[in-house]
Amino acid sequence: MSLPRESLLQASVEGSQGQDYSVKIYLSPQGKESASCTCPYNWEDWCKHILATLYYYQSYPDNLQQRPNLEQLLTSLNQQILYNLKNGFKFET
Q1: 85 φ, ψ to 5°?
Q2: Is 20:12 a contact under the CB 8 Å cutoff?
């Protein structure tokens, strides 16, 4: 589970049949704004995978991983890669 880039909570949740579902929850200072899950649940409100993600987020905040923001990611790239990105993705091998 991870808390990347400010207000997006993402998780991969194992379903009851062993398949993994991707959960995304957009948070705001007031709480949950919106959420989505790749499971086939098609009823009102939230599926159990979204609820499990929110429970985990609230119960185990120390286990979350903060992903780097765009500036941090770009800083880690070397100058040649940045030059190639700027000039139309012309990568030399």
Answers
A1: -65, -40
A2: yes
What one-letter code names the amino acid at 42?
A: N
How much of the chain exceeds pLDDT 90, in percent? 29
Q: Determine the pLDDT at residue 42.
A: 81
Closest by Cα among 73, 15, 82, 75 to 47: 15
Token match 């119960």: residue?
A: 59
Residue 5 has pLDDT above 60, yes or no: no
Cα–Cα distance between 15 and 37 in angstroms, integer? Answer: 11
Residues recorded for the chain: 93
Residue 20: phi and psi, rounded to 5, are -95, 140
Q: Whole-angstrom Cα distance, residue 15 to residue 21?
A: 7
Return phi, psi of residue 19, to 5°. -85, 150
Q: Is the dihedral of CA 75, 79, 83, 84 positive or negative?
A: negative
- Rounded-to-integer distance, Cα 42 and Cα 7, Å: 25
